[in-house]
Amino acid sequence: MSWQPEVDEIAYRHGLAAQLGGEEKVARHKAAGKLTVRERIDACTDKDSFVEVGSLTGSGQYDSMGRLVEFTPSNLVMGRARIGGRPVVVVGDDFTVRGGANDGAVGEKLIFAEKMAHDLRLPMVRLVDGTGGGGSVRNIETKGYTSVPTMKVWSQVVENLSTVPVVSLALGSVAGMGAARVASSHYSVMVKGTSQLFNAGPPVVARIGQIVDKNELGGSQVHTRNGVVDDEVATEEEAFERVRRFLSYLPSSVHELPARGDTSDDSKRRDEWLLAAIPRDSRKVYKIRPIVECLVDRDSFLEIGRQWGRAIVTGLARINGWPVAVVASDPYFYGGGWDGPSAEKFTRFVDLAQTFHLPVVNLVDIAGFQIGVEAEKAGIMRYGVRALAAVYQATVPWCSIIIRRAYGVAAAGHQHMGRFNFRYAWPSANWGSLPIEGGLEVAYKAEIEGADNPEQKRNEIEQRVRSLTSPFRTAEAFGIDEVIDPRHTRALLCEFAELATPLREAGAPRFGLRP
Fold it and tell me: Residue limits of the CoA carboxyltransferase N-terminal domain (predicted)?
C-alpha cells in the first residue's frame, strides 16, 4: 500500500491553511483596503519565488477517532523568497486570524525565521500586521495562569541587526512586540491612513484618561516625525517597492560587500548651475536635495527619514554604480543647526553605513549644535557626543565636502580626524570655532564698547576678520585637501567611490542599531 492517503491529507491541510481566518474575516480585511498576508508576500517578492516554511502550523481539533474536524492556521506565514533575484527571508502576520496576535506557534516560528535569516546570511523582511506578542487577555482564562513577559525572539532580533539587512513594514495596527519588531529595523515604513503603531491601543490608553482614535495615537504622521519609523507611503504596493529599493543598495549580510549597479551615468558630468547653488548672502538658504541628486548617479538617491531630524538629509545612492551613504545638511531647518533628533538620525545612519560597508559622502553646512535654553534642556550635547562617537568608531571610507559653514563641536565631527579621509571645500565654504556673527561681540567686547562708534568699530573688525576666513587661506596651510570647482565634484566623488571599493572590508566590526 502507498502513502497516498497521507499525501492527500497534506493537500487537504494546505487547503484549510489557505482559507486564513475564514471567508468573512478575509472579506472584512480586504474591505479595509488591505491585502491578505499571502497576497502581500507575492506582491513584495519575485514572482513564484516564495517557498513557505511551517505551512501546516496551526491549531487542529479532532474527533474521537483522531480525525481532523477543524483547523485554525497559524497567523504568521514565513519562508524564503527572492527580491530582485536575491534570496531573502520573509515573515508576514495574518490579521484575519486573531488579529495577528500570538498563538501557540507564532513565537517559535518567529524565532525560527530570525535564525534562518542569520544563519543563511539573508536579509529579513517583516510584514507586520498585529501584536505578534503575548496575545489576548482571554489567554489567561484559556491557560489558567499568567506568564511573566518574555521575548525569546529578541536575542535573534538584536543579533540580526548587526548581521543582515532588516526591513519592516507596518501594514495595519501594530502594538506591543509587533511595534517593537517594526522599530528594530534598519529601515521601516508605514502606510498612511491604514497603519498605526503604539505601545498600547486606544482602549488601554483610555484608562489613563486619553480618548483618542488609533490614528491620533499612533498614525504615520506621529511616528515618521519622531523617528520611530523611517518613512510613510500612500499604498502597500509603494511600501513593497521601498523594500526592493532599499535592499538593492546593501549586501545580503555583513560578510559580503554591496554590489555595483548601473554605470551609464557619465562620471565626468558637469552641471553648470552648481556654480550658483550656494548664495553669496550667508543669510539666504538653498535647497540641498537638488545638489545631492546632481552629484550622485541619476535617479539613484533613496532618501530615508525625511520627516524627522530635518536639519540633515540622509539616504542611499550610487556614485558611478557604487552604493554609498549620503549625509547632507539642510539649512531650511534651524539654519542647519543640529537638534537632538538630527544628531540621533545622523548616528543611526552612520551606524548603518558602518554595518554594511557603505562609503560615506558628507555634504557639510553645519552652523553647530542648536543653542538656547530649550536646546540645553533637551540635552543636545548628549545627543551630539553620541553622533561624534559614531563618526570616530566608523572605519568605512569617508569623503566630506564643505559646501558652506562648518562651526563648533558639531562641525568637528564632519569626519574622523585620526585617519585618512577625503576632504574638499567649495569656494563658498567658511569655518571656525564660532560663527563670526556671534563671536565678535565676545572676542572684541572691550574694543567695540570702548570705541566712539561701537557699530562702526564692529563692522571694521568683522570686515578685517572675514578677509582671513577665505578657504584659500586654509588651503595654503593644508588645512583642507583642495578647494574645488563645484562642477568638478561629481568627478571627484566617482574617483572616491572607485578608490573606496578595496578599502571596504566584509565582516568588519559593526554595530547594528546603537541602543
Answer: 1-263
Helix (H, G, I), strand (E, B) or coil at 42: helix
Output DSSP code: residue 207.
G
Taking only the tens place, the pLDDT of each residue in 441-486 is: 666 777 777 778 878 877 777 777 666 678 898 899 998 999 999 9
Q: Is 448 within a domain?
A: no
- CA gap 29, 92 in Å, rounded: 15
Helix segments in 200-261, DSSP class H: 202-205, 214-218, 220-226, 236-248
Q: E strands along 311-453, which residues?
A: 312-319, 322-329, 360-366, 398-407, 422-425, 430-432
Residues constituting the chain? 515
Kindly report the pTM of this predicted structure.
0.89
Q: What is the CATH number of the domain that holds 234?
A: 3.90.226.10
Are residues 116 and 109 in contact, defined by beta-carbon separation less than 8 angstroms?
no
C-alpha to C-alpha distance for 253 and 238, rounded to whole angstroms: 25
Decide if 335 is inside a domain. yes
Q: Which domain holds residue 384?
A: 272-429+480-503
CA distance 12 to 68: 10
Assess whether 365 and 313 both reside in one domain.
Answer: yes
> Is residue 383 located within the same domain as residue 491?
yes
